[in-house]
Write a structure and sequence with these properties.
The protein is an all-alpha fold. The chain is built from 6 helices and no strands. The protein has helices spanning about 10-20, 25-45, 55-70, 75-90, 120-125, 135-145. The longest helix has 20 residues, at about 25-45. The termini are far apart. About 15% of the residues are buried.
Amino acid sequence: MIQENALQPLVDQFLEAAVFESGLAETTLSAYATDLSRYVESMGESGVVHIGDVLREDVWDHLIRLRKDGLSARSIARHMSAIRRFHRFLEDEGLTSSNPVEDLDSPRLTRSLPGSLRLEEVDALLEAFDFSTPAGIRDGAVLEILY
């Protein structure tokens, strides 16, 4: 089994370049650092010694492991974004000739429906308007139509 830090210098190089070239937000860089460290650790556990040895199946196994660990589709999509940028960087820098994630799709994100208001909440909203003024009548009517 490979030590976690065998591929870590490449992650460090990617993050350093991302700071200067991509202009990514600090929170994004921090998330990428965490995600890629987990990715490198996963590759080490899979027996990957060189970054050029990473196969599409290794990446899939990593993503499946993340799902089994309880990560949401949104978190896995963020991991995939970091991994995709990382491999693109390595390819652009000539550090590897293969990109195992080139045609790999991110998980589909579902959007939840908004919650509905209780009757008391709707009544409270309508009572907030001053129906003695034209603007209050208009705003109350708009809200009732939308409701």
